[in-house]
Amino acid sequence: SMEDTVESVSKLFEQRLHFFSRALEEARNELSSKDEEIQQLQAKVEAAEQQKAQAQKENKILTTEIEIRNLKITLVEKELKHLCIHKLNSKVLQDNGMLRACDNESCSKLKDNYSEIEKKVEQVNEKVQKIKKENAKLRQTNSELKDELLRANLEKDSITLQFKKFTGMDESMKRLTDEYNLLNTKLTGYQEQIADLTHTNVSLCKEIEVLKQSKSNCDVQVQTASSSQEESEETTLPAYKEFLRQKEEFANLKHDFEKHRLMLTEESKKHKERLIDCERLFEVEKSKQNKLFQENLELKHELHKAKKKESMAEQELIDLLKNENSKNIQFFQDYAVKLHPVLQKRSLSSNLKSISELENENFDLKMQLLNEQNNSQNVYKLC
């Protein structure tokens, strides 16, 4: 009958209304969860920036400590130079006292020999000064290479931190991409449901036309039977009005669902654009890191060459000093044989003692300098 048909149509519209209300509520919940995830990503980015600032502060502190260490090394080198000059002056004064104690002939011979020694010492000093200049240049080059290597390491640490941050963002973007694909799948399902509902709506419209035709037939019957008209109006008109109200509510719900679907599509598009931008930035930073890594390898190679050259120069200086010391010892031994036995004993013992002391002190000072350089290199490696 017409009442049963209207009641079934009303139930069908109630079911559809409940279904679309639940779908709209789920879509809103998903949108709110997306907003929360975006806020969490922003909080992670801010935390990474704070960690970057803290790392830069620590790097500045380490750079200051390295500069202080280098200043200490420079001070030790100056003290070593001053001590070597003082020892040489004391040796010259001691030799002059020994010359005054000798007779004129021995003194003249000793002066001649000493002048030759002084010439040799001047030649050695010139060679030493030349080697020191080369060492100073090598130290300056080494210092510049250390500074460049330190800057490269700092840039490498910064890029590594950014790489880790972008790696985390890449993982987040992958997760967002998966969620985007899931949303697209759900939207496809919603579109299929909308198509089914559209088909159902067409069927309902046809049924409504049939109901309208039935209503017109009922109106004709009502005109012929006035007694049954009041009963027909009491039963048919309220049900039809309820049907029209549910139809209008269904249209409004369909409009809201379409609006929400478009909004979700726009959000998914924005997430996809952000993912593309992050991938592009990641590739740029990766190329920068590879370039810096290559420059770092070149700097390490240059630093190794400079250290090798510096060690060779230091070894050459040590060998030269040992050679000159051995020559001086041999000269004083030969000359002591020609002098008076007392003078021979006194000069030989004093010269051997002074030369051995100077040689030992020179060796100790060089070992101390090498230890300081090793300590500075260890501090640099630790940094």
TrEMBL record:
Keywords: Coiled coil. Residues 17-65, 107-193, 289-323 form a coiled coil. The keyword Coiled coil applies. The keyword Coiled coil applies. It comes from the Eukaryota. This is Uncharacterized protein. It comes from Euplotes harpa.
